[in-house]
Amino acid sequence: MSAHKSDAVIIGGGIIGTACGYYLSQKGLKVAIVEQGYLCSGSTGRCIGGIRQQFSSSGSIRLMMESVKHFQNMEQELGTDVHWHNGGYLFLAHSPQKKQAFLSNIAVQQAAGLKDVRWVEADECREITPGMDATGLLGGSYCPSDGQAYPFAVVQGYAGKIRQSGGSIHTFSKATHILQQGGKVSGVRIESGREFSAGVVINAAGPWSRDIGQMAGIEIPVEAERHEALITEGVEYMNIPMLVDYRADGGYFQQYRHNGQFIGCYTPVPNVPGHSTDSTFEFLHQMPKRMLKLVPGLKDLKVIRQWAGSYENTPDGNPILDRTGLDGFYTVAGMCGHGFMLGPAMGRVAADLIVSGGRDLQYPEFALKRDFTQAEAMK
Amino acid sequence: MASNTDKIVCRCEDITESEILEAIAQGAATADEVKRLTRAGMGHCQGRTCRRLVNQMLAKALGQKPEDQRPITQRAPLQPLTIKALAEYKEP
Predict the structure, then answer these.
(1) In terms of DSSP bridges, do strands A8-11 and A31-34 run parallel, antiparallel, or are they unpaired?
(2) What is the CA radius of gyration of chain B?
(3) Residue range(s) of every CATH 3.50.50.60 domain in chain A
(4) DSSP-assigned letter for residue A172
(5) Which CATH fold topology does A4-46+152-222+316-366 show?
(6) Where in chain A is the domain with CATH 3.30.9.10?
(7) Which residues of B are less than 8 Å from A303 in CB distance?
(8) Could A304 and B83 be called an inter-chain contact, meaning their C-beta atoms sit closer than 8 Å?
(9) What string of pLDDT tens digits covers the 379 residues of chain A?
């Protein structure tokens, strides 16, 4: 079997792999994506499609501001409707501590250039979210330019552009070996024994990125964590933003503009480490309880499905976007539940880094070797 | 693209036979892929009507037996349930 040849092999066919592939193709590189399942079969296809710029660290805020610009232009750029809609995000504060934290985050966000984020009092939260029960609410952090898009359409849009540029996508092709020659990366071998040779290999394997790193003896500090989600039938669009309630019995949910479905999830306490797509009955009755507490008018809405997928966490809640100790081998992983929203900007920045031979590190705060103790507060 | 004489396969999401055949022509080899490309099986009934049809179409196109095709994953709830009914559940 002769080896497949390209300029860059990307391990992972989710948002990160396909966005990296798209931007590298735009720069004239021939890319090959190897994916263990099918496109979107990992974390991307299990996410709820929210897109926000409200973070606590300048790097994530700036990256997300760029991503929002990409989402705004995406229909034209990729030639497919990705259902982008700037419905906004409203983070709710029910305690003085939360209010203080949001106020200081808003200052950081505005300093980073995010001009439309602002603190809104409880009365205005009710106006922004018709039908909301604001019991105990002090106010919220609101950014109307945050929004939503449809993950499957975005990934298929990138994949289509990669194929148009002469790149290739290999599904059901699980990477098993990182190949090296003369101290440099030289390609990837997959389970069937087939080899994909290239001078650049990108680890975009999400919750499996630690395993991929280990194939080259490189430690990637990424741990999978199970998160569950549910979706309802579609109803008339209610024009409410994504609501984020960080309380221990809170959750996050939004309504898709394009088909009226509500989609939501919460972070379990305690967390559930390890990759698993098992869903639980506890989530199926807890999530509706949490949605109803915030918007009682949703009571007659029908839940049609629940599922689960992995966050891919790093110790500080920020992504890893860097070269590694092995020349030509890059890591773009550890998105901590924000891979879909970060994806477009991550792909653009990663492509710049790769064509510069690993020198153009635009976000040193996302380096592989860093102090992981400064945690992101708006996970 | 759907034509006037096209057959509806997924009634919930209005997905036609030709849209599913197009997804298979694009390289979809499993029901899971067809679902993500077309939304067949993603609607109100969660594929209870169309999943067998999609599997038959895949098997025919790929020269397999329908039972060789793994159907799309079934998840709870087995029928749509209201937010209120779920929220009012009490631990026994």
Answers:
(1) parallel
(2) 15
(3) 4-46+152-222+316-366
(4) S
(5) FAD/NAD(P)-binding domain (3.50.50)
(6) 88-144+223-313
(7) 77, 80-83, 86
(8) no
(9) 678 999 999 999 999 999 999 999 999 999 999 999 999 999 999 999 999 999 999 999 999 999 999 999 999 999 999 999 999 999 999 999 999 999 999 999 999 999 999 999 999 999 999 999 999 999 999 999 999 999 999 999 999 999 999 999 999 999 999 999 999 999 999 999 999 999 999 999 999 999 999 999 999 999 999 999 999 999 999 999 999 999 999 999 999 999 999 999 999 999 999 999 999 999 999 999 999 999 999 999 999 999 999 999 999 999 999 999 999 999 999 999 999 999 999 999 999 999 999 999 999 999 999 999 888 888 7
Contact A325, A183 (CB under 8 A): no
Best mutation target among B86, B89, B91 (most A Cβ atoms within 10 Å) is B86
3-state helix, strand and coil shares in percent for chain A, rounded to the nearest 5:
30, 25, 40
Task: Count how many pairs of residues, chain A against chain B, have C-beta atoms within 8 Å.
Answer: 76
Residue of A nearest to B84 (CA): A299
The matching CATH number, chosen from 1.10.20, 1.10.10, 1.10.3470, 1.10.287, for B8-87 is 1.10.10
A38, A301, A307 ranked by CB distance to B82: nearest: A301
Using an 8 Å CB-CB cutoff, list chain B residues near A40. 36
Instruction: Give the tokens for residue A371.
Output: 């102090």
What's the rounded Cα separation, in Å, for the pair A138 and A180?
57
Global pTM reads: 0.97
Of A38, A302, A306, the CB nearest to B82: A302
Measured between beta carbons, the chain A residues lying within 8 angstroms of B83 are: 232, 288, 291-292, 298-303
Output the six-digit token pair for A12.
């992972």
Rounded to the nearest 5°, which phi and psi values hold at A209? -70, -30
| Record: fold of A88-144+223-313 | D-Amino Acid Oxidase; Chain A, domain 2 (3.30.9)
How long a stretch of residues is chain A?
379
